[in-house]
Amino acid sequence: VPQAQTAPASGGAVAGTGQPVSLVADSVSVDAEAGTVTASGNVEVLQGDRVLRAERIVYWDAENRIRAEGPLLLTDPAFGVVEAEAAELDAGLTEGLIRSARLLLAGELQLAAGEIRRAEDRYTVLHSAIASTCEVCPGGGPPIWAVRAQRVIRDEEEQKIYLRNARFEVFGLP
């Protein structure tokens, strides 16, 4: 039976955000000595408009951070939708490292990377990234067009995307 819990930090609000957090999972355990909350099985963390779904999440109260193990899905209207295998984030879900991730922006632009780093609730940095608006091809073939870049930086405040060492490809060819 799923359980609803409120995060222990700051009386139900994540430190520094002032927003309440809800936690729903099949199983929730609290280790007061270690200062951790572990949720597993169909985990959902809800804070404002942000939603994180994962198989397992560990929250460290003293460090105000979480580790999510996936597959996981992070939805944030300002950030986009992220599918990933694992993440280490601050409890506000605004800063941290996301591994083996795919980011969907405005429902159209897909960016995939081995690593995505979020910083200052403003920047998203993707390493060894590929970007395209093409749907993923059946059978795993390359998209009709894509841009590959060593690094992609998205500045949410300026609403700009910067590419470093980028190349344009058509059917997988530069």
Give a structural overview.
- The protein has 174 residues and is mainly beta.
- The protein has no helices and twelve strands.
- Strands 1, 2, 3, 4, 5, 6, 7, 8, 9, 10, 11 and 12 form a twelve-stranded antiparallel β-sheet that branches.
Largest sheet: 12 strands, antiparallel
| Fraction in beta strands | over 45%
Question: Helical percent range?
Answer: under 10%
Q: What general outline do the C-alpha atoms trace?
A: elongated
Contiguous low-pLDDT stretches (5 residues minimum) are 1-11
What number is the mean pLDDT?
86
What is the count of β-strands? 12
The radius of gyration is 17 Å
Order of helices and strands: EEEEEEEEEEEE
Please work out how many helical segments DSSP would assign: 0
